[in-house]
Each structure stands twice: as structure tokens, then as C-alpha cells.
């Protein structure tokens, strides 16, 4: 599984999300490749799941929308864990 964390510039919040997602997946015993990128280059990255914020969700390309998980807070591991579990359990 490949997961791409997406933010406006690809440096700040997406990097924090990447580290938090990796920690959570490790705790869950799930193996995945997690990376981060900026919104402008998201179409160059093929992933099974894209993770972004409410503010950027509307700007994710339509083709990627079904594979996009929208987080309210990249910093809250509890919130990320809850949303990840709901997606991964499907």
C-alpha cells in the first residue's frame, strides 16, 4: 500500500502527517509506504490513498477524490488513527 500526504507546499504539514501516519500504521501492524508532496505535484504520484486537510480537499483532482482521506488535524494522532481505521477497514 502506498499513501501520499498532501499539503500546499509539500514541506510542513504533509511531513508532519507522514510521520504521524507512519507511527500509527506501525502501531496497527500495517506495512505501507508513506510519502509526502505538494498539491501542485500530486498528479505525478500514484498512491492507493491520498491524505490532505479540509482546506485543500476541494483542490485535489477529481480522479483522486475517491482515494482521498480528509483530515481535520494533521497533528492529532487520535483523529488520524480514527479516520485511517475507518478507511482501512473497508
Automatic annotation (TrEMBL):
The keyword Transport appears for this protein: yes
InterPro entries: PTS_EIIB-like_sf (IPR036095), PTS_EIIB_2 (IPR013011), PTS_EIIB_2/3 (IPR003501)
Coiled coil: none
Organism: Stecheria intestinalis
A Pfam family it matches: PTS_IIB
Span of domain PTS EIIB type-2: 1-90
Gene3D superfamilies reported for this sequence: 3.40.50.2300
Any Gene Ontology biological process: phosphoenolpyruvate-dependent sugar phosphotransferase system
GO MF annotations, alphabetized: protein-N(PI)-phosphohistidine-sugar phosphotransferase activity
Name of this chain's protein: PTS sugar transporter subunit IIB
